[in-house]
């Protein structure tokens, strides 16, 4: 699924729609600096019912959110110097219970991160941004189908 996003508001809106359909699983967010990964994650958290500030995990590497329906972990691995650091950050604990992991810069966790259910690539375009959403599991496909049909 591809979608043109004119601005940050449309990027956040896509995240909110996803938040209405996602369950436990893993979402990878790919894109250059400033492509809108954190903005999309903010919308996703709002769509899941989070009220309040959404902090960028750029310096903390992980921001946990205990929501009424599930635990969400927003990871930004840009500053990760070695994928093995995911062990020190508590990746096993994050994966032990049904939770949602939203991972920016997932390639930096290669070899330690499980495969994604959904990958979202954000690219710059003349019209703003282009979001390409690719399901990598039956769960991810279910999420995409619900977003496409407007159930999210």
Please describe what this structure looks like.
The protein is α/β, with parallel strands linked by helices. It has a single domain, classed as P-loop containing nucleotide triphosphate hydrolases (Rossmann fold). It has helices spanning 8-19, 37-47, 85-88, 91-96, 138-148; strands spanning 2-5, 25-31, 62-66, 71-76, 99-104, 118-125, 128-135. A 7-stranded mixed beta sheet has the order 1-7-6-2-5-4-3. α1 packs across α2. It is globular.
Describe the protein's topology.
Layout: E1 2-5, H1 8-19, E2 25-31, H2 37-47, E3 62-66, E4 71-76, H3 85-88, H4 91-96, E5 99-104, E6 118-125, E7 128-135, H5 138-148
Parallel strand pairs: 2-5, 2-6, 4-5
Antiparallel strand pairs: 1-7, 3-4, 6-7
The total domain count is: 1
Q: What is the terminal separation in angstroms?
A: 14 Å
CATH architectural category: 3-Layer(aba) Sandwich
Mean pLDDT: 91
- CA radius of gyration is 14 Å
CATH class: Alpha Beta
Reading the helices and strands in chain order gives EHEHEEHHEEEH
- Main sheet: strand order: 1-7-6-2-5-4-3
Name the overall outline.
globular
| CATH topology category name | Rossmann fold
Give the full name of the CATH homologous superfamily.
P-loop containing nucleotide triphosphate hydrolases
Secondary-structure-derived class: alpha/beta
Please name the defining characteristics of this protein.
152 residues, alpha/beta, Rossmann fold, 5 helices, 7 strands, 29% helix
Summarize the structure.
The chain is of the alpha/beta class. It has helices spanning about 10-20, 35-45, 85-90, 90-95, 140-150; strands at about 1-5, 25-30, 60-65, 70-75, 100-105, 120-125, 130-135.
